[in-house]
Amino acid sequence: MFPQIRLRRLRSHPRLREMVRETNLAPSDFILPLFIRHGTDTEVPIQSMPGHSQWTVDRLTKEAREIESLGIPAVILFGIPDEKDAVGSSSWDEHGVVQQAIHAIREAAPTLYVITDVCFCEFTDHGHCGVLHEVNGTQDVDNDATLPNLVKQAVSHARAGAHMIAPSGMMDGMIGALREGLDAAGFTHVPIMSYAAKYASGFYGPFREAAESTPQFGDRRTYQMDPANGAEALREVALDLAEGADLLMVKPALSYLDIIRRVKAAHPDVPLAAYNVSGEFAMVKAAARNGWIDEQRVALEILTSIKRAGADLILTYHAKDAARWLAGES
Ligand code: PBG
Question: Which top CATH class is 25-326?
Fold first, then answer.
């Protein structure tokens, strides 16, 4: 007879449960997305993302200080310009919305780490993530013509003071082009976090309302990944690392926990972020508003699962709430 093993002994006291906890979520794990709109003195609430708004630059000060005081180390910025054109040229305007927001946030909250999303869908009048050309009789994003524009945008963000850039357009060769362009402009110290495995997902719905970036025709399936593919994510990741990515990202997070796991297993030495996207956030909010789930419990469970799967960092719209909950406020 061997002694009976009782795992329940490890769960028998709250202190012991804390001591043997394998995954500890902390505000320092979070990156909070912020939407910056053109104009002045305006905050436009985003209907499908309760608690989130599009902010004008002059309204950012209070928000940035609050984020900083909650112990959230970083924000990622998305811009909503007043003028859009076919190539998205307002994205590299030195007085553009994102560029101004970088200055404002760094001044208001000097300890915050400022990341910028580098893409075109919010800046083009057609809503696609680059310059268009015709392929097989339909308009599609021209990969190689988009690369120099991505470099222009990234360099202008770095000039404005962005600490890190995060290209999300899923163009082939974008990491190599951006690394080279940033280095040539003197920004060898600016890291690149690649949206390396980004899926063509229905979970981006609320974001497209928030960022006013819905494609005017077609979809993003010629550049974002097929949700049915897992091994392909490892190829995307390997290429981005070879081209010089400093951090990797998997997006969305929740339906892709297996991808987070596989990427972390393949590259345990590379920091990995996961994007807990707008649709994932909106589902929790909607169910909680109906009284069907406990928001705090479910949101923390989701964030913990993303970290347990292997993410070191989590981009999440729940960052402020979660930071408060983790500090013991409800
Ligand atoms: C593209 C981009 C998207 C998101 C972040 N960057 C949307 C898209 O690919 O259409 C979505 C994030 C979210 O849903 O929270 N620049």
Answer: alpha beta
